């Protein structure tokens, strides 16, 4: 394992809140020296998703074996037989590149990472304008059935209640404002005062 122990940036939110858009934006900012933590999942790939790029797609039996072998930093059964998690080797891979880790994960996983690395982690909850707006965004994706969307909406109500447990909350009512807020949080946590002042 590398001697470099970078910071961890956790972005969590209900599906459709815009956290992925924010994370992709931050990854493009070279000054933050970030690498995306690819989650593992037991579900099948959707659309054009690629193994090792979007997710590590692991079948259910192997996923459960890895849980027993304590190979995950965090994991959760999000829906029945539908597991997601972060492999310990993934964080080691990124630290070996001497980069900071950025996560786009479920709220339960996000809070578990914060608990394991309390001093190194900045946990950010991305809050959508409303649950109704979430439903509109999820429908626009056209990637899931009505039943799946309804399951996500029901889960969102529970997830929204966890927001106060995160270090910071970004209200994603206006994407440009949310992106600037995310950049400022990164600058503060990495102590990049110059980068913050330059943009103002």
UniProtKB/TrEMBL annotation:
Q: What is the lineage of its organism?
A: Bacteria, Pseudomonadati, Bacteroidota, Flavobacteriia, Flavobacteriales
Q: Which InterPro entries match?
A: GK/Ca_channel_bsu, Guanylate_kin-like_dom, Guanylate_kinase, Guanylate_kinase_CS, P-loop_NTPase
For this protein, the record's PROSITE patterns field holds: GUANYLATE_KINASE_1 (PS00856), GUANYLATE_KINASE_2 (PS50052)
> Which species is this record about?
Polaribacter ponticola
Question: What is the name of this protein?
Answer: Guanylate kinase
Which residue range or ranges hold the Guanylate kinase-like domain? 6-187
Q: Nucleotide-binding: present as a keyword of the record?
A: yes
What reaction gets catalysed by this protein?
GMP + ATP = GDP + ADP
In this chain, ATP is annotated as bound at 13-20
The record's Pfam families line, in alphabetical order, gives: Guanylate_kin
Q: Which UniProt keywords apply?
A: ATP-binding, Cytoplasm, Kinase, Nucleotide-binding, Transferase
Where is this chain primarily localised? cytoplasm
Q: Which domain of life is it from?
A: Bacteria
Q: Coding gene?
A: gmk
Q: What is its EC number?
A: 2.7.4.8
Q: What top-tier enzyme class does this entry carry?
A: transferase
Q: Give its localization.
A: Cytoplasm
Molecular function GO labels:
GMP kinase activity
- What role does this protein play? Essential for recycling GMP and indirectly, cGMP.
The Swiss-Prot or TrEMBL record describes its family as follows: Belongs to the guanylate kinase family.
């Amino acid at each position: 394992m590398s001697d470099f122990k970078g910071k961890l940036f956790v972005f969590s939110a209900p599906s459709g809140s815009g956290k992925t858009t924010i994370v992709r934006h931050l990854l493009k900012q070279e000054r933050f020296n970030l690498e995306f933590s690819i989650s593992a999942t037991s579900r099948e790939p959707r659309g054009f998703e690629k193994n090792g790029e979007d997710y590590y797609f692991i079948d259910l039996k192997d996923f459960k074996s890895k849980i027993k072998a304590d190979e995950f930093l965090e994991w959760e059964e999000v829906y029945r037989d539908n597991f997601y998690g972060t492999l310990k080797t993934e964080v080691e891979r990124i630290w070996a590149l001497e980069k900071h880790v950025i996560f786009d994960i479920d709220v339960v996983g996000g809070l578990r990472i914060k608990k394991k690395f309390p001093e190194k982690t900045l946990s950010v909850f991305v809050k959508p304008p409303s649950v109704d707006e979430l439903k509109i965004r999820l429908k626009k994706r056209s990637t899931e059935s009505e039943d799946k969307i309804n399951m996500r909406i029901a889960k969102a109500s529970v997830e929204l209640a966890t927001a106060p447990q995160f270090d910071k909350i970004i209200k994603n009512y206006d994407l440009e404002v949310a992106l600037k807020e995310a950049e400022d949080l990164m600058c503060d946590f990495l102590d990049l005062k110059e980068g913050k002042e330059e943009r103002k």
